[in-house]
Design brief:
45% strand; elongated; two-stranded antiparallel sheet; 274 residues; alpha+beta
Length: 274
């Protein structure tokens, strides 16, 4: 009879331990998002639409698949499954930078005009224009990696004294230029380049510069603070009333073991009586 009692108690403990282990093992599949920087991507358009990526517009006139190549581009994908382990490697990120340049190119998907200072550039069809009437300020998307040195370009001004300089007049005009010792009059036809010679003159020129910097990771997104613990003061100063926990039989390993011993004891007592 004692053997029956011992076996019953052991069976109860094994049942409690098995239940405790199975409740904590395994990972459930969830929907999680990943971010990736790519050189191009495709997207399906079920109806007519347009997509702007950077400074280029892609147009779908009917249901079709578009290939976006004006990258680097940052895309976000949602996947259902078990998320991969978090990597300690630096994650590239996209940021917007503003730079001063001596010229730049831009894609015009349709006929348009671009005015830069006092010069107008005209595109009669889809084409790429090179803007040279600078210095100009341009904004672009740049992919950076924390801890990896990157290059930034800009402009600095240099002042020099020159005996003469050249300039282009967009239309017919007559200009009177006062110099240090004499005043000269110049007549120009449309788009004519005229050399101003009654110098010397002080001339300011924009010169490209390059600098190297090491980017840091973007600041993490701020999350909402957890609710205060029961009995602790809330934001208004009033204490938070504790919430009664829902009844849950044998939730802990120790409780399950105790329950196992109790069941085993009952079974053993029944066997002894019989």
């Amino acid at each position: 009879m004692q053997s029956v009692v011992a076996l019953a108690a052991i069976a109860g403990v094994a049942s409690a331990w098995s239940g405790n282990y199975s409740s904590s093992a395994g990972t459930s599949a969830i929907d999680y998002t990943t971010t990736e920087v790519v050189t191009s991507y495709t997207t399906y358009c079920p109806s007519p639409t347009s997509i702007v990526e950077g400074n280029q517009t892609y147009t779908a006139t009917s249901a079709t698949t578009l290939t976006i190549t004006n990258c680097p581009c940052t895309i976000t994908k949602t996947t259902h499954g078990i998320p991969p382990p978090t990597s300690s490697a630096a994650v590239p990120f996209t940021t917007t930078t503003t730079q001063e340049v001596t010229e730049y190119t831009t894609v015009c998907p349709s006929p348009t005009t671009i005015v830069e200072k006092n010069q107008t550039y005209t595109a009669t069809e889809s084409t790429t224009l090179t803007i040279t009437n600078c210095p100009c300020t341009v904004t672009a998307s740049t992919v950076l990696t924390p801890g990896v040195p990157a290059t930034s370009t800009g402009l600095t001004t240099v002042t020099t004294v020159v005996p003469s300089y050249t300039t282009v007049f967009p239309s017919s005009t007559t200009v009177v230029v006062p110099g240090p010792s004499t005043t000269a009059t110049y007549t120009a036809t449309p788009s004519e380049t005229v050399t101003i010679t009654n110098g010397p003159f002080t001339q300011t020129t924009a010169v490209p510069t390059t600098s190297v910097f090491t980017p840091e990771a973007p600041a993490p997104t701020t999350q909402a603070a957890p609710p205060p613990a029961p009995g602790a003061p809330s934001a208004s100063g009033a204490p938070v009333a504790p919430t009664a926990p829902a009844p849950s039989p044998f939730t802990g390993g120790a409780a399950k073991a105790a329950a196992g011993f109790g069941i085993g004891g009952v079974l053993g007592l029944a066997a002894y009586i019989l």
